[in-house]
Amino acid sequence: MNKNSKSTLIAFTAFLAVVVVLVLKYVPWDFGWFPENVNSANYGEEVDRLYRTIFIIVALTFFLTEITLVFCCIRFRSRPGTKSVYSHGSTKAELFWSVIPGVILVWLALTQNEAWRMAKIDFPDESDPNVVVVQVFAEQFKWHFRYPGTDGKFGTGDDVVATDKLYVPVNRDVLLKMSAKDVIHSFFLPHARVKQDLVPGMMTKVWFSIKKHAVYDIGDPEKQSLKFVTTQEFAEMKTAWGGYTFVEEKIDQQGRVLDEERDKKELWKGYKKYYYRLNDDAGDSVEAIQNSKIAEIPPTQVTHVMHYYDIACAELCGLGHYNMKAQLHVVTQEMYVQWLSRQKRTTVAEKFENIWDEYFPHYNKVRAKKR
Amino acid sequence: MSAESHAEDAHHGDHHDHDDHIHPAPTTFFTKYVWTIDHKTIGKQYLFVALFFLLVAGLMAMLIRWQMAYPGEQVPVIGKLMAGKFVFNDQGAVKPGGFIQLTTMHGSAMIFFTIIPILVGVFGNFLIPLHVGARDVAFPVLNALSFWLFALAAAIILASLFVEGGPAPAGWTSYPTLSDLGDSVPGAHMGQILWLISVFFLGFSSIIGGLNFLTTIVRLRAPGLTWGRLPLVTWAQTITAVFQVLATPVLAAATCILLSDKLFGTTFFLPANVHLGDENVTPTGGGAPILWQHIFWFYSHPAVYILILPGMGIASDLISTFARKPIFGYRAMVISMSAIMGFGFIVWGHHMFVSGMNPVLGKAFMLTTMLIALPSAVKVFNWLGTIWNANIRFTPPMLHGLTFVSMFIIGGLSGIFMAATPVDIHIHDTYFIVAHFHYVVFGGTLFAIFGGLIFWYPKMFGRMMSPFLNKIHWAISFVSFNCVFFPMHLLGEGGHMRRIATPTEYEFLQPMQPMNVFITWSAFILGAAQLIFIFNYFYSMFWGKRAEENPWESNSIEFSTPSPIPYYNYESIPTVYRGPYEYSAKGDETEDKDDYAPMTEPGEDPAEDH
Questions:
Q1: Nearest CA of chain A to the CA of B488: how many Å?
Q2: Same domain, A98 and A149
Q3: Is residue A49 part of a domain?
Q4: Which residues of B228-239 are buried (b: 16+ CB within 10 A; e: fewer)?
Q5: Interface predicted TM-score (ipTM)
Q6: A309 contacts in B (CB within 8 Å)?
Q7: Long-range contacts for A158-165 (Cβ within 8 Å, ≥24 apart)?
Q8: Looking at beta carbons, which pairs linking B261-268 to residues 24 or more positions away fall under 8 Å?
C-alpha cells in the first residue's frame, strides 16, 4: 500500500468510528411497528430484548459496510491517470473479519437459548390449579377453545367450548394444548410474541400470561383508540361488558354507519369513530348485563369498552386462511368465572369432543411436571 | 519457474481423453436451434423459457400486490376480461382461492423455473465449457436431455394452470395435510399432482446437469488451468453442482412420497383420523405431516444456496473485472463457498422452529444457522476489499455487481433475526421473511443475473446492449426494489402474516394498510421497469452495436474468442498461464494492455511472486 492509501485507510477508520457512535446513539431499535408486548411470562420481555440486541449489531454492520461501499465507489472511481493497487488480499484482514463476526454469531446463538427454553421447553405445571389450561382444536377456518368444567378435568361431559373467542384471566399462566382437525394451522398472538403450529395427529403446546386488558376508549369521540391497561387502571374505568357478543359499528366522518360489504374501501382507511352497541340478539348476554353491576351504568356514561387481542392463523390452511381469526379476551378473575359459568353446551362442543375425546383421549391426561 | 513448464505439468496432470479436433458444424435449422447439443445454444434455450417464466411469475406478483392493496377490488384491464376464470371471481377481483394459487405459483415459477434455470441452465451451460477451455460439456447429449426434461417440467406446470380446480394452492412449500388431501382446498387435487410431477422432472434435469458440470470441470480443464486459477464463477458452479447432485434426490423422494399419498392412498404424511368437516378422511392413517417438512427442507435449504452461490460467483468476476483489481482473498472466497455448502446441509430446521418439532432441535439449528452467516460475511468483506484501492469503471455490469453486494448485505443481515429462535417466534410466517428472501434472491441473485446477462451478451449474441437503457433500467429497478421490499421488514415486525388475501380483515393490520398500498405502487413501477430490460435485450440482438472480441478488457478465456462465439468455442484448446484476476499487476505494461493480463496470453504469472 502506498502512503496515500494508508492515510485514506486511517481517516476512513476514524470516520467509521464516528458512525458507530452515532448509530448507537440515534438509531431506534424499534421503528414503532411492533405491537405492544403484553406478555408477562418469563420469556415475554426477553423476545423483544433479544430483537433489540440483534438489531443494534445488524444496524452497526449495515452502516459500516454500506458506507464503506459508497465511499469506495466515490474515492476509488476511475479517472484519467488512476490505477488500482495490485493486491490479492491480506491474511491478517481475513482473520480479523472472520474471527470477530464468528465470535459475535456464536455468542448470539448461545445467548438466545435461555429465552427459547423458557418459551418452548419449560411449560407451566398442568396440575397446578393456578394455571389455566385450555385445549385448542383448529379446523378450516375456526378456532375451538375447550375449558375443563367445574371439575377441572377434560372429557367429563361438563366441559365448555367457545368458538373463535378465548377468554383468559389477567396475569395468570395460560397453557394451551393444541391440535388440528384437518390441516396445519398456526396460533399467532402478535401482542404476546406467541406462535405455534397446530398439527393434525400431534399435540403441541404454548403458554403465556397477559398482563394488560385491551380496551377501547370511546369516551372522547376525538381520541378513540385501542389501549392496553393494567387491572388497576381497568378498575378505575367505567367499562361496559356484554360478554362475547359485541357488535361494533363503524361510522365514517359523516356519522353514516358503514357496511362491511358495501363500504370496503372506507373500512381499511381507518375510522374516525367507533360506536359500540350490544347485540340484542345475544340472548343470555343481555340477561348477564341486567344481572351484573356493570350494566347499571347508563350507556351515556360508558367511557371504555372491553376489546380483545387478535389471534391470527399463521400457516396457510386453505381458502379461509386470510380470515381465520379469533379474539383473545383478557378479563378480570371475576369476569372470567362469570363468563365460564354462563356458557351453555352447544353442538360445536359435542363435535369437538367426538373427535378429540374419541381419537385423542391421551390429550386429556394431565401430566404433573416432573421435578 | 517458466510458464511453459507450468503448462506442461498441468497437461500431464489432466487426462485429455477428449479429442482436440473440431466436429463439423450443425447445418439444418433443427440441429442448430432445436435438437442441439451445443452448450451455448442449450443455454439460450433455457434463457428464453426462463425469461418467459420471469414475466409470468412477475405478472402474478402484480396481481398479488393489487389484491393486497385493494382487497376485493376489480383488477384493472385484466379483471373485466377474465372475470369468473382462473383466479378471478365473477366481479373480476382476485378470489381467496385464487390468491393462494397465485402466491404458490409465483414462488414456484420464480424459484424452479426462472432463477435456478438461469443460474445453472444459462450461466452454467454457457460458461462452464468456455471457462475451463473445453469445446463443450463432458456429456453434450445428456446436456440436451437436461434441457428437454426442464422443458417437459415447464409444460406440465403450465398445464396445471388450466386443469380443474386450478394450479397448486398450498404454497411452494406444499405442506401436507393441505397439499395431501385432495379436498382440502381447490387445486389440491389435479393442480397439486401436476406440480409434484413437474418438480420431479425438474429434479431429474438438475441432477443430470449437476453430474455433467462436475465431470466437465474436474476432467476437461485446459492445460495450465489449475484449481487455483479457476474463475470464481466456475468455482461457484462446481459447488452448486455438488449441492444439486446431493440434495435434489431428496426433493425427488419427497415428491414421490407425496404423490404416492395422493395417487395410491398411502398415508406417509397423513395421521389417523383427519376430519374434513365431519368426515373422517383418514380412518387408517399413521403418517406425520412434519415428516414432509423435514424432507422438503432438507432439499430446499440447499436449494436457496443454489439460488445465491452462482450469483456470488458472477458478482466476484464482475467486480474484479471492473475494479481492475484481483479479487481480495481468492482462497477465502473458495473456502467460504465450500463452507456455505457444508453448513447448508445442516440448517434446514430453521424453517421449522415453530412447526411442532422437538424444541431442543431449535437450539441445534440456531447454532448452525448463525454459523452459516459467517462465510457470507467474509465474502462481503472480501468484495469490499476488492473495491478498496481499486480503479472502478461504472459500467452497467459493475453497477449490478455492486448492487448484488449491497442488497445481499441487507438480506443476509435480516436473516440473523430469523436465525434467533425466540425472535423467529414473532417473525416466522410474516412479511419479515418475505422481505429477507426477496432481498437475497431478487436484490442479490437477480441483479447479478442482469449483470451477467449484460456482461456476456457480446459473447452470446455478438452485439452490445444499449448501456444507456441498461443504466436507466438499473436505476429505476434499484430504487423501486428497495421501496417494495424494505417496508416489508416493518410489516413483519408488526406481525403482518404471509399468504393472506385480505389483510384488512384483521384489526391489528388495518393501520398498516397504507404501507401495503405504497408497496404495491412501487411494485408496479418495478415491474414496468423490467420491460426496459426485456426490450433492450431483444432489440439489441438484431440492432445493437456489433461487439468486438473483448469489449470489457477482461482476462477471462472466453474473451479471447470472436463475438459471438463460434460453435466450436476455441480454434485450438487454449493454454492457461495465469489466474483470471491479474488486473493492474506490477510490471505488466505492454502496448494496449496496461492493466489486464488475459489468462491465455503467454507470459509470467504475477501471482507467483506473491
A1: 11
A2: no
A3: yes
A4: ebbbbbbbbbbb
A5: 0.91
A6: 508
A7: A159/A349, A159/A353, A160/A340, A160/A343, A160/A345, A160/A349, A161/A343, A161/A345, A161/A346, A161/A348, A161/A349, A161/A352, A161/A353, A162/A244, A162/A343, A163/A348, A164/A325, A164/A326, A164/A327, A165/A244, A165/A308, A165/A326, A165/A327, A165/A329
A8: B261/B176, B261/B180, B261/B287, B262/B180, B262/B182, B262/B189, B262/B192, B262/B193, B262/B196, B263/B193
State the residue range of the domain holding A37: 3-78+88-121
A135 and A102 within one domain: no
Read off the pLDDT of residues B478-521 as tens digits, 9 standing for 90 and up.
999 999 999 999 999 999 999 999 998 888 898 899 999 999 99
Does A221 touch chain B if contact means CB atoms closer than 8 Å? Answer: no
Count Cβ neighbours within 10 Å for each residue of B345-367 and write b for 16 or more, e otherwise: bbbbbbbbbbbbbebebbbebbb
Chain B residues lying within 8 Å of A306, measured CB to CB: none
**DSSP bridge partners of A213:** A229
Q: Mind giving me the DSSP string for B470-511?
A: HHHHHHHHHHHHHHHHHHHHHHHHHT-BSS-S-GGGSGGGGG
B residues 345..384 contacting A (CB < 8 A): 354-356, 359-360, 362-363, 366-367, 369-371, 373-374, 377-378, 380-382, 384
- pTM assigned to the model: 0.90
B528 pLDDT higher than 90: yes
Report the CATH number at residue A367: 2.60.40.420
The domain tally of chain A equals 2
* Residue A83 included in any domain: no
A262 interfacial to chain B (CB closer than 8 Å) = no
CATH topology of domain B40-271+290-609: Cytochrome C Oxidase; Chain A (1.20.210)
**Given a cut of 70, is residue A292 above it in pLDDT?**
no
Q: Which of A140, A156, A163, A206 is nearest to A353 (CA)?
A: A156
Among the partner residues A77, A108, A319, nearest to B420 by beta-carbon distance: A108
A264, part of any domain: no
Q: Which residue in this structure is represented by grid cell 414456484?
A: B108
Contacts of A85 in chain B (CB under 8 A): 325, 389-390, 584
Per-residue pLDDT tens digits for B335-360: 999 999 999 999 999 999 999 999 99
